[in-house]
Design a protein that fits this description.
- The chain is of the alpha/beta class and 217 residues long.
- The protein has a single domain, classed as P-loop containing nucleotide triphosphate hydrolases (Rossmann fold).
- The chain contains eight helices and seven strands, in the order E-H-E-H-H-H-E-H-E-H-E-E-H-E-H.
- The strands form two sheets. A five-stranded parallel sheet has the order 2-3-1-4-7. A two-stranded antiparallel sheet has the order 5-6.
- The protein binds zinc ion.
- Zinc ion binds at residues 133, 135-136, 138, 153, 155-156, 158.
């Protein structure tokens, strides 16, 4: 049985943690476009060079290019029994391009899409509690993963900071942008009958149980 999964969800919803666990449990690769992109750029492939020229000029990497890189990744041997795409497709444009490239007639290239959802106030609390070490980049959370000594990095002792991105107004803007970008995408998968919404308000263990149940059927 192939397991072709897509995990979607706004920043702070915790889908990366769940994705890592599910990929291990099911023996399928955990694929994020960020990782693929970095790898293609590092290896200086044709696609990597094209992507880099867009990034260097401050633009976004076009959907067709992202999809071409994902398609190439999915040709590798470890994807034979399935794959878990983390945060891809990100837009309806990417979804359509992906379907043309990977799927076929009546095959969206995806068996199940898990959409991790939580109210904004939960996401704002999670993201707003994040503290980062400016020296070694370690990440902490004031509630769920505090440093041993107040506001100091466990690893290197530097004073922790709240990134610009994690300030309340910036978080609200990030969430707004995410919802605008994905609204149509979510609707698309809902209509296709592949979407399962996962209530991600609870603890990591509680969410993991919901994911288990969603993937069991
Ligand atoms: Zn540090």
């Amino acid at each position: 049985m192939t397991k072709r999964l897509v995990f979607l969800g706004p920043p702070g919803v915790g889908k990366g943690t769940q994705a890592k666990r599910v990929a291990e449990e099911h023996g399928i690769p955990h694929i994020s476009t960020g990782d693929i992109l970095r790898e293609e750029v590092r290896q200086e492939t044709d696609l990597g060079k094209q992507a880099k020229s867009h990034m260097d000029s401050g633009g976004l990497v076009p959907d067709e290019l992202v999809v071409a890189m994902v398609a190439r990744r999915l040709e590798q041997d470890d994807c034979r029994d399935g794959y878990l795409l983390d945060g891809f497709p990100r837009t309806i444009g990417q979804a359509h391009a992906f379907e043309n490239e990977i799927g076929g007639d009546d095959d969206p290239g995806v068996d199940k899409v898990l959409y991790f959802a939580a109210p904004d106030e939960v996401l704002i609390r999670r993201l707003g509690g994040r503290r980062t070490c400016p020296s070694c980049q370690a990440v902490y959370h004031v509630e769920t993963m505090p440093p041993k000594e107040d506001n100091l990095c466990d690893r290197c002792g530097a004073e922790l900071v709240q990134r610009e991105d994690d300030q309340p107004d910036a978080i609200k803007q990030r969430l707004r942008t995410y919802r605008e970008l994905t609204e149509e995408l979510i609707g698309h998968y809902r209509q296709a009958g592949t979407l399962v919404e996962i209530n991600s308000t609870g603890s990591v263990e509680q969410v993991a149980e919901l994911v288990r149940r969603a993937l069991a059927t």
